[in-house]
Design brief:
Radius of gyration: 22 Å
CATH class of the largest domain: Alpha Beta
Number of strands: 7
Number of domains: 2
Order of helices and strands: EHHEHHEHEEEHHHHHHHEHH
Oligomer: single chain
Strand content: 5-15%
CATH superfamily of the largest domain: 5'-nuclease
Distance between the termini: 26 Å
CATH architecture of the largest domain: 3-Layer(aba) Sandwich
Number of helices: 14
Structural class: alpha/beta
Shape: elongated
Strand order of the largest sheet: 6-5-4-1-2-3-7
Helix content: 40-55%
């Protein structure tokens, strides 16, 4: 299948291909090979490949030890965000080579990066540009999974076997939507990003019924096709007394009353809303033009970068370009 756009999660691709490699040059060759043989062979002639980056430092500054970046907007909200995750000591060098290698490939290859936003932040705004068109997401990070649909495929193994809605539903017990995915992680947490779930606050004692209520609410978010802004507004405008006085209570009403009672002892509702803010795309509804980088093809720069990777002039390896 050929796609109108392909979005590549560069950090995820690095770790998928690194395996037993011990040098940046070994990994960058694998990444370039994957791009040439897989990604570019599945893009339409008039399509665009977007390579998405997490914040990149110009010096190491300890990034070989952690994912910390001082301008990361999610770190501002939650200081412990991704603090349990470690870089490979060849990550930064490889990613910089990868970025430079594709920076001068013309406007059909665009790189998305900044000092403040992560790779998954760019997905939602880019998909807005490709409504009713076919898009492939190259990642096995389930932050991307909430976007999959009949037109948006997540390539977590191969183009021949994209991650399906049915596989997602089997894992999470609800159909993927952006809002449902965010709500799920906000309730139950995300260990990979060091986010504590709202219903697992210390000293807050919950029973199985609360987890069931949370899941029932997620199913209602899917059924009603709610946006994450609608979810936030529902929680922020809810009134305990008004809901308690209702003769008939819906799924949200029951959940909100229960969480409000527990909130007297632990900040469950505040934690939920904070998690939503951390997990959702900080670029939702915004233009990302200033974060998209590309330059006209420059053979001189290409040869310099390619020679640094392959050791001999690129054209001697691959023939006429």
């Amino acid at each position: 299948m050929l796609y109108d756009a392909i979005l590549v999660d560069s950090a995820n691709l690095f770790y998928r291909l690194k395996k037993q490699s011990t040098t940046a040059l070994e990994v960058i060759k694998k990444m370039i090979n994957y791009m040439d043989n897989e990604v570019f062979s599945h893009i339409k002639n008039d399509g665009t490949v977007y390579i998405l980056f997490d914040p990149i430092s110009y010096t190491d500054l300890g990034e070989s030890k952690s994912f910390y970046h001082p301008l990361n907007e999610r770190k501002v909200i939650l200081s412990d965000y991704k603090s349990n995750r470690k870089h490979s000591n060849i990550y930064l060098e490889t990613i910089e080579l990868f970025r430079k290698y594709y920076l001068h490939r013309g406007e059909k290859v665009k790189l998305a990066y900044s000092d403040s936003h992560e790779a998954d932040d760019y997905v939602e705004p880019l998909l807005e540009l490709y409504k009713d068109k076919t898009v492939a997401l190259i990642s096995n990070d389930h932050d991307f999974a909430g976007y999959i649909s009949k037109d948006v495929h997540m390539i977590n193994e191969s183009f021949d076997k994209p991650f399906t809605v049915e596989e997602f539903e089997k894992l999470y017990e609800f159909k993927p939507t952006v809002a449902a995915n965010i709500v799920y992680k906000s309730f139950f947490g995300d260990k990979s990003d060091n986010i504590t779930g709202a219903i697992f606050i210390k000293k807050a004692k919950f029973n199985v019924n609360v987890k069931v209520m949370c899941r029932d609410y997620i199913l209602s978010v899917v059924e009603k096709n709610m946006t994450i802004d609608e979810v936030i507004n529902q929680f922020k405008t809810a009134n305990f007394k008004d809901i308690n006085d209702k003769e008939t209570k819906d799924t949200f009403d029951t959940l909100y009353l229960t969480l409000s009672i527990v909130d007297l002892r632990a900040p469950v509702l505040d934690t939920f809303l904070r998690n939503v803010q951390v997990i959702r795309s900080s670029l939702s509804g915004k233009s990302i033009d200033k974060y998209l980088h590309f330059n006209p093809v420059n053979e001189c720069l290409n040869d310099i970068i390619q020679k640094s990777i392959y050791g001999i002039p690129f054209k001697q390896v691959f023939g006429r370009v």
